[in-house]
Write a structure and sequence with these properties.
This protein is of the alpha+beta class. Helices cover about 35% and strands about 20% of the residues.
Length: about 425
């Protein structure tokens, strides 16, 4: 969308604003919107709509689903319909919303009531990267840095005539809604592609590539029916090694200097069949001296504890890992390593389910060793692994392209808001 600039500009005197239209003003926030600081203690007998920082989507100002009859605990801010709520914690500075109802909100949200501004225009102004960056630079605190109203209130914002603010807000409401619909459509496409990938993987590693193959019951609920000529064996019957990794003593700095050995942690796992970036590179002396274990290329790695419990990937080159990961080296005379990894990859939800329900669920080696897998002859395993490599790569490429499109839409959305509220584009004729 190519939109014209305003006929004349003047300097705003504010670095992040640059030049503004000649007839616009620039005012400190506290002169166009007041801070409402009405705090009340929640009454369990009177549930009300409550907004926490988690209910506000970053950069969009959209409210995520919330319980309209939630009873918040402790002290909360009271807000009126149409108030602008702005997150003052550093991780949430790009959160601002305008609820169309009255209720309570987190005390980490500033409640602003516009006086000389359209509340929608104010919200869009607060979501511009220049303003967010300015407030971020003045946030204070170590663990949870936050901005103070004393600083936020004196930050300068553009102030067009009120009718023009409403025109700009109308334009942005329409255009951001259109862009958000495109983002949502692409998000659904990504979801469908990922579901297709999962279904393809699951079907192929349990049914093979021959759709006409005669089937038999595997005797295992996870496997279901499999081709009649396949074997059903547990991991332990085809593994040469099942071990966890380890962490070299951090006091021994030489183990972490001039590293060449990739060392992986739970954060190295994602949806891919191949483990991603190592956490660190260890010095080879850590392996030579027994402070770390080296595992062979092709080994299957399973996260056995933590937030990513049950995630499965394989090593593409010899490497090491920490104690949160269990590594399986299969007998390559009978098992194609990547086929085995695909077999376990399809079981990720089940692996998370079999871990004991506790404060810190752990998947032990015995439980992993007892997992049943379906095994065709080696040539068939190789063909299946190569087919899945190609097909999942094709789907992943499509997902990456759609994700790039989503990123560009979101970047354009932010740029459009900034251009409109700072007067770099003139939308008056467009709205008319």
């Amino acid at each position: 969308m190519k939109l014209p600039a305003y006929p004349k500009y003047k300097t705003s005197g504010v670095e992040w604003l640059g030049d503004v239209p000649e007839k616009w003003e620039v005012k400190r926030l506290k002169y166009v919107a007041g801070l409402s600081d009405v705090k009340i203690e929640a009454d369990p007998e009177m549930p009300v709509p409550y907004i926490g920082l988690e209910h506000v989507e970053s950069w969009t100002g959209k409210l995520l689903p919330l319980d309209l009859e939630l009873v918040p605990s402790g002290i909360a801010n009271q807000f009126k319909k149409g108030s602008v709520l702005f997150g003052k914690l550093r991780p949430y500075l790009a959160k601002a919303c305008t609820p169309d109802f009255t209720g309570l909100c987190s005390t980490e949200l500033l409640v602003l009531e516009a006086a000389k501004q359209d509340n929608r225009f104010l919200r869009y102004s607060l979501l511009t990267p220049g303003f967010i960056s300015l407030v971020d630079s003045a946030s204070y605190g170590v663990k949870m840095p936050r901005a103070s109203w004393d600083f936020v209130g004196v930050c300068n914002l553009p102030l067009p005539p009120l009718p023009e603010q409403q025109i700009i807000a109308d334009f942005l409401d329409k255009e951001t809604a259109r862009l958000d619909a495109l983002v949502a459509k692409n998000a659904k496409l990504i979801e469908r592609l990922k579901e297709k990938r999962t279904a393809l993987l699951s079907h192929t590693v349990t049914r093979g590539l021959n759709s006409k193959a005669k089937l038999k019951s595997s005797g295992n609920d996870w496997l279901g029916d499999i081709p009649a000529h396949w074997e059903v064996l547990t991991v332990r019957h085809r593994a040469k090694l099942i071990k966890t990794g380890g962490t070299p003593p951090t006091a021994e700095e030489r183990y972490y200097e001039d590293g060449t050995v990739p060392w992986f942690g739970p954060g190295s796992f994602d949806d891919q069949i191949v483990v991603s970036q190592p956490v660190k590179l260890l010095n080879s002396s850590a392996v030579k001296e027994g402070a770390a274990r080296m595992f062979a290329a092709g080994a299957t790695m399973v996260v056995a504890i933590g937030a990513t419990l049950g995630k499965v990937s394989s090593l593409t080159e010899p490497g090491s890992c920490n104690q949160q990961i269990t590594v399986i080296e299969f007998d390559e005379r009978r098992v194609h390593p990547r086929f085995a990894t695909y077999q376990l990859k399809r079981l990720e939800p089940a692996l998370r389910a079999i871990a004991p329900s506790a404060t810190l669920p752990i998947l032990d080696q015995g439980e992993i060793a007892d997992i049943a897998i379906g095994l065709p002859p080696i040539p068939e395993q190789t063909a299946i692994a190569e087919f899945l490599d190609a097909e999942t790569a094709r789907i992943d490429d499509l997902v990456a392209k759609v994700e790039t499109a989503v990123e560009r839409l979101q970047e354009y959305r932010t740029a459009l808001i900034t251009s409109a509220v700072t007067g770099k584009i003139d939308v008056r004729k467009e709205v008319a």
